[in-house]
Specification:
Blueprint: E1 22-24, E2 30-32, H1 33-38, E3 51-52, H2 58-63
Antiparallel strand pairs: 1-2, 1-3
Amino acid sequence: MLEMRPDCERCGVDLPADQAGAFICSFECTFCAACAEALDDRCPNCGGELMDRPTRTGKALAANPVSTERRRKS
């Protein structure tokens, strides 16, 4: 199951699990749309492709809450 990280690792903007606009690589590194575009859809951590992260809503979100650990790079 996806960890659903709460923020962009590059700029720190919040990325709610129930809204579109988050991009992830196969290691679940997470970026907002603006940062993914600036990175040319390549993860700066592993070099993998950044893809749209699926949303999690309703009962699925209630039963499987998102991560609270922020991973913004300083």
